[in-house]
Write a structure and sequence with these properties.
Among the domains are: 171 residues, no CATH class; 135 residues, no CATH class; 72 residues, no CATH class. The chain contains 19 helices and 5 strands. It has a 3-stranded antiparallel sheet. Helix 2 packs antiparallel against helix 3, helix 5 runs parallel beside helix 7 and helix 12 packs parallel to helix 15.
């Protein structure tokens, strides 16, 4: 570490800058002729005035140069003396004095007579004293700032040493002792009182012990942290004492909770038994911490079990996919005992389909239920935790649909905003509103039939148009499916037999549209002789009902 300059006596004092001494020899007086005395006196006065004016101008020019030199020497942004900091400022008085002497000598030599030189010499000496006072104040301030910074840096280095070697009491004691010596020496150099030394020494020792305790707490050893505090508690002062005691309280509470939870759950206690055991703790804060730790450990355990279960199901599925559905594979047989009855049954169905080369037919309502779980903010966590590798799931979805849902769940588990789920929520809201308008419960078979037709129509629309339908277009599709169509007649043809469009079979729908087309054609022919087009037709690609625009002649 650089050594801070130390002086035995005050070093800041006024001193003049050296300059050349000028001997002023006044010109000899003129001796005018006796007869021309008055005229001669007038000539002398005029000459003396011109000479005085010239001296003033020359002195002013010299002072201008001196001022420019002082400004550059002290305040230049790059090389100015007052912009030099720290150790770089320590040699400024000698350096500036030498430069000032050289510059004033050059200016003085440029003056034309002893009068000018003598006046400039006096001016330069006064300016030099001012510059020295300014420099002395600057250097003294930089020496103190450097001393403060270096002492603080040294003390901090010793704190870091103690923190690194906190398990070695001798190293800690040595580091604290070095801090005390540095603080005392700093006080002596700067004339600081004993009270300052005592205060700073206590602060540095307190902060060193505080940092050590926080390090021990961060390492998870609350018992060792408390033991260290008890051994050194007399050295903590001010805010450090309060903060350390608060940290120790929290650390002790968490440490107690972890140890007790490990003991309770390690004994094989169930969740309810563990929470009952926690009630025996009288301290309210410790009991709360223990309950939270039990909950945390149970959650971690449950998550680990879920991940293990998913890995097991994924492994079996991959083996079946690779061996063509051979359940007799010894590796699969060793695992089957861990499957539930429903999973085992689904797994056998899946294996049978693989053996027969059949692709699974997707249960569309089941897929929609999965998407609904993910799209609903209240159930999205449940969707993220579902085991899609379970046979009960992948036995109800064909390969493409399962991969689609699995990809969506993977993104949801990472906390991403999944576009497919947002789109499904928008689609389903429209379907729910139309079902509600027909007073059909969303869980009824009729609702499932409506959804089958509705979502199929959305897929058809996207395939035929190369884009998703807008909300308005989706509403149109849903409302058309909810319209009544005539599928026949009852009571000797006197009354129409009607169904909702989504309930009608394809044959019934075609019959209804044909009948409607004939009826519209007849009505339109009576109203206009320009065309025989029907008023309404069904778009074979989208399934939408289009109405003829009489002005454009196009169906919309």
């Amino acid at each position: 570490m650089p050594k801070v300059p130390s002086y035995d006596s005050p070093q800041v004092q006024e001193r003049g800058l050296s300059s050349s001494r000028v001997s002023v020899n006044l010109p000899e007086a003129l001796t005018p002729g006796r007869g021309a005395q008055a005229q001669a006196d007038q000539v002398v006065q005029i000459a003396q005035k011109f000479k005085s004016d010239a001296d003033q101008v020359a002195l002013m020019e010299a002072d201008k140069k001196l001022t420019e030199m002082e400004t550059d020497m002290l305040y230049n942004p790059t090389s100015g003396a007052l912009n030099r900091k720290g150790k770089d400022a320590f040699g400024l008085p000698e350096e500036v004095n030498e430069n000032y002497r050289k510059t004033t000598d050059e200016i003085q030599k440029s003056l034309s007579n002893p009068v000018q030189q003598a006046a400039f010499n006096k001016l330069a000496q006064e300016r030099g004293l001012q510059i020295n006072r300014t420099l002395d104040r600057h250097v003294a301030g930089e020496i103190k700032s450097y001393d403060d910074a270096e002492t603080l840096s040294y003390v901090q280095t010793q704190m870091n040493t103690a923190l690194t070697a906190y398990q070695d009491p001798d190293k800690v004691a040595q580091a604290i002792s070095s801090q005390k010596v540095a603080i005392a020496a700093h006080a002596q150099r700067n004339g600081l009182p004993p009270e300052w030394v005592k205060l700073k020494t206590e602060e540095s020792e307190s902060k060193t012990h505080s940092a050590i305790i926080k390090r021990i707490i961060d390492n998870g050893d609350d018992l060792a942290a408390d033991a260290y505090y008890q051994a050194n508690k007399d050295f903590f002062v001010g805010q450090d004492k309060g903060e350390v005691e608060k940290d120790l309280e929290i650390s002790s509470r968490l440490g107690f909770a972890q140890r007790e939870a490990d003991k309770i759950l390690g004994s094989g206690a169930t969740a309810s038994q563990a929470y009952e055991k926690a009630k025996e703790v009288e301290d309210p804060k410790k009991r709360q911490a223990l309950n939270e730790e039990i909950s945390r450990q149970l959650t971690i355990k449950k998550q680990a079990e879920r991940e293990d279960n998913e890995d097991m199901h994924r492994t079996v599925k991959n083996m079946l996919d690779s061996n063509g559905g051979n359940l007799n594979d010894p590796r699969i047989q060793r695992t089957l005992s861990r499957f539930s009855l429903s999973d085992t049954s689904s797994l056998k169905n899946y294996a049978r389909n693989l053996q027969e080369g059949k692709d699974i037919v997707t249960d569309q309502q089941f897929k929609r239920d999965l998407m609904e779980l993910g799209a609903n903010p209240e159930t999205k966590d449940k969707f993220a935790k579902m085991n899609l590798n379970s046979p009960e799931v992948y036995n109800k979805l064909n390969k493409n649909d399962w991969e689609e849902v699995f990809k969506i769940q993977t993104a949801a588990r990472k906390g991403k905003d999944v576009k497919e789920l947002k789109e499904f929520r928008s689609d389903s809201e429209i379907a729910k509103n139309v079902l509600a308008s027909m007073k059909i419960k969303s869980t009824s078979p009729k609702a499932a039939a409506f959804n089958d037709k509705y979502y199929a129509a959305l897929v058809d629309f996207k395939e035929n148009n190369g884009r998703r339908p807008t909300e308005k277009e989706m509403s149109t599709i849903a409302n058309q499916l909810a319209t009544d169509v005539v599928v026949g007649s009852t009571f000797f043809g006197l009354f129409d037999n009607k169904k909702k469009l989504f309930e009608a079979t394809d044959e019934e729908q075609q019959q209804a549209f044909n009948a409607q087309a004939e009826k519209n054609k007849s009505m339109f022919t009576q109203a206009s002789n320009t065309s025989g087009k029907p008023m309404r037709i069904r778009d074979k690609k989208t399934g939408q009902i289009l109405t003829l625009n009489k002005k454009t002649g196009k169906y919309e």
